[in-house]
């Protein structure tokens, strides 16, 4: 032991620990995901995600007010349409569910930032994130035809009032295509938060319950990234930056802390971490069994994301965390 080096000196009092704390989680770091469904007065808890609900637009608006009052700066909207088809019509139609929800929320709570998830998987009959040749059961998504649909989707979301467009389908060139579409429609000032490094993950399982978006055949490994790859994440973010992304996301978060760190080191753009559905469900299941202290586990985990480099954290724990932080 070196007697002049005693790190415990700085841990002896709560106020001293507070003074030297390096990472402080704040409510302003959080983004809350919401699932919009057709209907009115409708709220249905997601089986695998206790405390998370599919909500009709009127209920989404109530929720948005609560989120805003808690001091959370933004929400991200996902939609479950009435009908699904091969063209993902529900994604880009002006009367689509996310479009309706975005308009209603911006009208009721104009100062809440509304992020629109821009993907096709909730809207295609086959559940893939892009366009497939009709009758193709291989699950080989066609990249460039998908870009056209994503462009249309992003523009209609911006027209409906979305403040940020968040493409999540991992198609090559999607940031550039969406940027061009937004600019041509007069939305030069609408930022793009790209799901830049999104891995093919089993942790999305509960989300696919929530969004009814599991692929009917095949899987997403021809477009989402292989969990073993880290350098490839840097390649993905470099491309997205070149294409005009304003913010970058790493997803999932827990098993990819090193990727959050590497991305943060590699760019000066804001970095978001998506604390995904399966990560939430695991914590909830353990907490409901009284196996862990939910509050402490959640706050430690969210602080970990921030320490790893996340400027923003998309999390289903956002409302609880905001309450625990004391809005
Ligand atoms: C759609 C999308 C998914 C998630 C966000 N956007 C699911 C998927 O890729 O299958 C997952 C979010 C979560 O698990 O919480 N592209
Ligand atoms: Zn998708």
Summarize the structure.
The protein is of the alpha/beta class and 327 residues long. It has 12 helices and 10 strands. Strand 8, helix 9 and strand 9 form a beta-alpha-beta unit.
Can you walk through the features of this model?
This is Delta-aminolevulinic acid dehydratase. It catalyses: 2 5-aminolevulinate = porphobilinogen + 2 H2O + H(+). Its EC number is 4.2.1.24. Pathway: Porphyrin-containing compound metabolism; protoporphyrin-IX biosynthesis; coproporphyrinogen-III from 5-aminolevulinate: step 1/4. The chain has 327 residues and is of the alpha/beta class. The protein has one domain (9-326): TIM Barrel. Helices cover 39% and strands 17% of the residues. The protein has helices spanning 14-20, 57-69, 89-92, 97-108, 143-159, 174-184, 205-211, 231-243, 257-266, 277-288, 294-308, 318-325; strands at residues 30-37, 43-46, 49-56, 74-79, 113-118, 164-167, 193-198, 247-251, 271-275, 312-315. Strands 1, 2, 3, 4, 5, 6, 7, 8, 9 and 10 form a 10-stranded mixed sheet that branches. A hairpin with a 2-residue loop joins β2 (43-46) and β3. α2 (57-69) packs across α4 and α5 (143-159) packs across α6 (174-184). The chain is globular, with a radius of gyration of 20 Å. It starts with 13 loop residues before the first helix and ends with a helix. The model has no long low-confidence stretch (mean pLDDT 96). Ligand PBG binds at residues 117, 119, 121, 129, 168-169, 204, 207-208, 220, 276-277.
